[in-house]
Amino acid sequence: MTPYRLGILAMYLSEQRLEELSYFRKLSTYGHKLGIQILVFTPDDVDKNKKKIKALVYDVASGKWQRKWALLPELIYDRCRYHGVHNFHKISRFRAVHKKLHYLSSPLANKWSMHQALSEDSVIADHLPATVRYNDHQDMIRLLKQHQRIYLKPRNGTGGRGIVRLQRISNSTFLMQGRDEQRRIIPQQKISESQISTKLSSWRLQGRYIVQQGISLTLKDGRVHDFRMLIQKDGKGEWQVTGCAGRIGPMHSVTSNLHGGGTAIGMEKLLMRRFGNKEKVASIQQEAYKLGIDIAHFLERKFGKQCEIGIDLAIDPKGKVWLLEVNPKPSREVFYRIGERETYRKAITRPLEYALWLHHNKNKNKIPEEQD
C-alpha cells in the first residue's frame, strides 16, 4: 500500500541546515510505523512550476537522509520558525501561492495582536498580565510605575531573545537585566529613570516591542521559572493537554527557555517545592489545564484550525495562573528532559495521528479551507 504523504514545511537557517532535523527524524520514524511518509522541504526546495519539491526523506532502514523529487503533498505541517523578516516574507509568499494546500494549523498573530485577541474572552482575559504596545518611552514608564517589574519583549521574538526586565527598587532607581538578540545574558545593573531610555536607545523598541507586567517568577535561589504546556489534537481531532513541565532559568537570567540554558523539572514537583500542599497543587494544575484547553478552543475559533499550541504559564506566589505567551510552533524536548518518555512520545506522534484522522475523514467531512 502506498503510504500517506505528509509535507513538513521547514526553513534553512544557514548552509542548508535545518533547525529541527532531529525532530523531523523522529517524525519520520514514527510516521513509518503509522504508514505515513514524511517529506521535509523548504520554500527554496519548490521547483519553478510550483508543483514538485526536492524533499528530504529519512530512510528508516539505513538511518540516512536522502534527497528525492516528489509532488507537493496535499497536507502540510508548518514548522517554519522565521528568524528574521526575510524568512517571514518567504514563508508568507509560499502560503499565499499554495493557499489550496491544506495546513494542519493556521497562522497566529504576533504577541501584541495575540494579547488583544485573547482579551476579547473574559475568562482568558482574567489570566493576562497588563500589556501595552511600546510607542515611546512614556509607555514603559507608566507601566513600570504601576507594577514593581515589567518585561520588554519583541513582538515577533522567540526563544527568549531580546527580552529585558526592569524592576523598581525605589521611586527613582531600577534594576535592568535581560538577554540580547543572540540570547546572551545582559548582566544586572542599577540605573535611574533617566538612564533607561539611554541604555535602550540602540534596541529600536518603537513598533517592535511590547511592554508587559512582570509576574513574580523568582525562586528562593534567585532563579526565574515558568511552565510550558503543550496542547495538541489527538487521533480523533479532539484537544488534549499532552503535558506541562516547569522550566528554571540559569543564574542571572531573566528567561527560563531551555535554549538559553534553562533546566526542566516536572510541573507537580516544582509546584510542591513552592507550595508544599498537595490539594493546592492539584487545584493549580486543574486551573492551568482548563485554561489551556479554553485558549486552544478560542484560538481555533479566532484564527482557524490548529494542530498544536505551546503555552507559557506563570504561577504567582498566591497560586494564580497567568498566561505569558502562546507559541504556535512549540518544541517538546522539555518532556524528554524530565524523563516523561510517554508524554514525549505522544508529543511527537499526535500531529501524525491528527493528520491521519484528517486523511481518513476527508471524504466524510471535507478538510476545511484555511481562513484568509
TrEMBL record:
InterPro entries: YheC/D. It comes from the Bacteria. This is YheC/YheD family protein. It comes from Paenibacillus baimaensis.
